[in-house]
């Protein structure tokens, strides 16, 4: 394997005096789907936000495309073609779907807006129907699609997704995971933070398991799915 | 009193209203009917006030009757009456209304002159026209900060003050003309906007409101206490008045009237000031509308919605906030500069927290982010308080001690409560998308029709 697209090396992060990440190391190679699973409060979302510089890593470093991005401000990181769909979707509720997508295209001044809009609408046809509707009037699933679509508008190389299945019906979850797989087939690298371990591990090439701020296990998706500890903690227990 | 029954008849409503009148009469006899006073020999005398009792009863009956009839109409329509007032108008109605309003404003001095005559028109143009337009402009300026960027600013009057004092001090000390002071005042106010912006970058909501409130007070206290420069409470007098492209408005041979061969009248300056503030306000509106379609304007709105999402999308929230503060403050400064030049005299008393509260109330009542809504709210609030000065005839009813202007704050509060109950998102709560494919076509079509295309 050549140098990874993104590597997180021994990163520690704090909220005040509480240590949320304890020397976490993960790697995401080009054109890979990597998932990070773990229970509530394990630090999954913190790791994703730390990659974006909020909170900033106090120790360790984060390297993207061979460049140390640990100290870059959040908006600069976003300009390096890393896009994220944050936890809880965080779409702009009073703005229309089109405006939401337009905000995603703001990084390069919206030059490819029309073309990318068509692409996103192809991936999520429902967004085309809702295009001039306020974001806040969409259903949870549609909002999640909008959040992913908005992230895609910046033509990212690496897509970070934080719990895209949160609070959604199984059918919608499957639809979203199919889109993630399709994006990956088209060459997108995806880093997926999930609680829905079964779906995530089935989809991902590789996975990491996080427990209270540290990575405890890693391996291919299939491997992790077969591990009895993973099954006990995240699959059977959760059923 | 029970809620109106579904089978409401007119005689029933009248009977109900008369009952309310009787109750009011019973209540007002001990409370209102006699007033105790002392005569010269310190004896208590009772002054009967039957007129007051009669008017109280009359008002109670009228209000109850109106309430019952409105409720009946509402039931007949099968929906909330207030809801029907907020019917969805076609998208172009707002634009048409705005255009009609602008045309009306340009004709306003002519209308006022023809209706009220030369003597009466000054009051209508100055007290109503100019005063309302100043607050429309301030409302639009604050709308950038509060309505678009979502940064709750309780100290906006500080920038108004900076603009006014800049014009006053530069004009008096260095003899700069108003036309030079106006841009300088805007730039300085924008500069102060950035100075306020930096320390509050990390704050939002209530915390931001408190800090901006304190900032407004600091500016006012500096103006009061820095006597060598600002002359403290006494204020600054003799601020240079704006000239008509170099021609002053005075009675001299070089004055406006003499140059244009007209008889001297203070009216010309008033009309000129009216058009000046009208153009300044329209400039504010035009700039805001343009900015909303630019990346910075969209970023403001996105910032109002979700700051974290903004950062994740690569938006520099620091510069976005600072531009909102600076541009909003800049328009406050322009308005302040105009205010100083119009009054010719300013003192810290014009820049109290009350002014900030009124401007913020205009923005909130109008509907945050809505330009038309803010303008309507400014007309209602400022026009309403000015109208109170015209209500001397009410003394006939309530006695000579009655001063309608004293009820200003009471009515102000009542209006706010009512609007917040009926239209909690402000008078104009619909937000026009900044990008709208079908709409854009309609707009370009309209342009072609008017010969712009």
Structural class category of chain B: mainly alpha
Mean pLDDT of chain A: 90
Strand-residue proportion of chain B: under 5%
- Total beta-strand segments of chain A: 10
**Biggest pleated-sheet summary of chain B:** 2 strands, antiparallel
CATH-derived topology of the largest domain in chain A: Rossmann fold
Distance between the termini of chain A: 36 Å
Describe the structure.
- The complex is a heterodimer of chains A (239) and B (453).
- By secondary structure, chain A is of the alpha/beta class.
- Chain A folds into two domains: 160 residues, P-loop containing nucleotide triphosphate hydrolases (Rossmann fold, 3-Layer(aba) Sandwich); 67 residues, no CATH class.
- Chain A is built from ten helices and ten strands.
- In chain A, the strands form two sheets. In chain A, strands 6-7-8-3-9-10 form a six-stranded mixed sheet, with helices on both faces. A four-stranded antiparallel sheet of chain A has the order 2-1-4-5, with helices on one face.
- The model of chain A has no long low-confidence stretch (mean pLDDT 90).
- Chain B has 453 residues and is mostly helical.
- Chain B has two domains: 76 residues, no CATH class; 306 residues, ABC transporter involved in vitamin B12 uptake, BtuC.
- Helix content of chain B is 70%, strand content 3%.
- Chain B contains 18 helices and four strands.
- In chain B, strands 1-2 form a two-stranded antiparallel ribbon.
- In chain B, a hairpin with a 5-residue loop joins strand 1 and strand 2.
- In chain B, helix 4 crosses helix 10, helix 4 packs across helix 13 and helix 6 runs antiparallel to helix 13.
- Chain B is globular, with a radius of gyration of 26 Å.
- Chain B starts with 9 loop residues before the first helix and ends with a helix.
- The N terminus and C terminus of chain B are likely disordered.
- At the A-B interface, helix 2 and helix 3 of A face helix 11 and helix 12 of B.
